[in-house]
Structures are given as C-alpha cells and as structure tokens.
Amino acid sequence: MSDQNNQKNAGAAVKAALLANVGVACAKFAAAAFTGSSSMFSESVHSVADCANELVLMVGDRASDHQSRGDHPFGLHRVKYLASFIVATLLFFVGGVFAVSQAAGKLVGLLEGTMSRDANSVELIAALVVVGVSACLEGYGLHTSVHEARERMKRVQVEDDSLIGFWRRTKSAELASVMMEDTLALIGLAFAGLGIGLSIVTGDELYDAIGGMLVGLVLVCGSAALAFKSGSLLVGESLDRSTRALVVKAVEDTAGVDRLINMQAIHMDEDSVLLCLKVETSKLDRDYDVETVDKIETNVRRTLPWYEWEIYVEPDIWRAKQA
C-alpha cells in the first residue's frame, strides 16, 4: 500500500510541476514579448522544455504500467528510462541549441551595430520581477524534489547522501529528470537575472544577450548530463553497494546455502529488480535444492520488501577457478 501511495504522490508531483511550469512559461513569454529581453526569451524556451519534459515522463510512466503481451517478457518497466533519454537528447538539447542560436543572433546584431544597444530599464525591471518570482517557484520545486529524494533513500534503507550523490545513484528516471530540471532552472534564472540586472545598471543590451546565451548553454550542458544518466539506466544499472550487501547477507544466511558463488542483479526500474544467483547448497539433491531455492527467494523478499523481485537461482558446485 505504501509503494502505491508513493507512486501516486510522485505522479501528483509531476502534474503539479507541469501546471506550475505552464504558468511560468506563459509569464516568461509575455515578459519576453514586452521587453524584447534575450535572457527572458531563453528562459521561456527553458520553461517550454521543462513542460515537455514532464509530459513525456508522464506518458512514459503510464506506458510502463501496461501489461506486456509476451513480446517483452520482463515487462515494459524501462519505458520510463526511454522517456527520460528522449527528454535529455531531444527536448533539452534542441531547446538549448535554439536558445543559444537566438541569443547569438541578437549578440551579433548588437556588436555589429545593426541593433540598438540602449536598454529600456523600465521594461527590463518587469522582466527581472518575473525572474525573481520564477526563481522562488523553481526553488520550491527543487526543495520538494530533495525532500522526496530523502524519503526514497529512507524507504529503501540506504545511507543519506548529498544531492549529487543521490542523483548519481538513484534508479528513478522521473526523479533524476525533475531534479536536473529544477537545478538547471535555478542556474539559468541566475544567469538571466545577472544579464538583465547588468543591462539595467549599464543601460547596455549586450549583457542581456550574453545572459540569454548562457541560459541556452546551461540547457545544452544539462542535456548531456541527463543523457548520460538516463542512458546508463536504460542500458541497465546494478544495485547500489548497500542494497547489494543486504541481498548477499540474505542469501548467505539462508539455511542450506554453503556458498554464494555468483550474483548478478539489475534494475528493471526503480522498484523492480532482476536477480540471478548461483549457489552451492549443503546437499546435491534435487528436492533439497528446490527447498533451498524457495527459502532463498523468501528470505530476499522478506529482507528487502520494498522491491519487486524476479529471482532465478541455480544450484551449482563451487570451483577454485570461479573465485
């Protein structure tokens, strides 16, 4: 029941983030149209990428829950990872390149003198207000993501970790994407605010254009980091070190197991694990081995009940060359 509640809460969080980002994107586009700010336009593209990110993640989450008709024997769990990879390689990257190209065009025009460098301070102040409000909303979103990260670490009994450490070890494509999205948003808003602020102080539009380019570059760099993470999840990541130690202990403490010869485990999604074991049992008797295998499966599931396990155990004889 608790796992179902966690999934429902995670879905609600993404929907809430989507609604918030739609509002923020509209406000940014309005401010960009009113002021002509390059930084604000880049931030508008950034928010559109965030909205598309959440939509794709929601679609991927729903598709992963569908039952396979047999053509995918281990289910459709990794659709979530595919959705995250699409977000990283297409939405974020394309959005970042588009924002950079628009800012670069304005920057060239300002440097060549084909566009006026005189900044309208009143209009840019309005854009700066939008940046400030957006930063508060994105900061709250990141706070929510970090809180959820802490809750998930507690739920699966792994040691508390830094934000970067959790992002690297998490098997949740959804949470990794949202955390990256919120972090990039705050960094981008910082660059946008700096560019707009310097344009207000100096009266020169050049700084606003530079701020817009930096926002686009943040998106491009973020897309590379998210692509690496989601790509790793898509290929298949093993259990983290502390969880692996719990599984090993559960297997070795099972009555009838003399030795754990080999263990391979891979996450199908955040809450589903494929576990393959090769063990040496106390007696080389088929009936005895069957009972031992059943005990192993029961012990693993009892020790780590927060995961959905697909377990395969092969009784074997240990040989020195296997060490």
TrEMBL record:
Main location: membrane
GO MF annotation list: monoatomic cation transmembrane transporter activity
Signal peptide: 1-27
Keywords: Membrane, Signal, Transmembrane, Transmembrane helix, Transport
Membrane-spanning parts: 81-104, 124-146, 184-203, 209-228
A GO BP annotation: zinc ion transport
InterPro entries: Cation_efflux, Cation_efflux_TM, Cation_efflux_TMD_sf, SLC30A9
Domain of life per record: Bacteria
GO cellular component: membrane
Matches recorded under Pfam families: Cation_efflux
Compartment(s) of residence: Membrane
Annotated membrane topology: Multi-pass membrane protein
Cation efflux protein transmembrane domain span: 15-235
Protein's name in the database: Cation transporter
Organism the protein comes from: Bifidobacterium myosotis
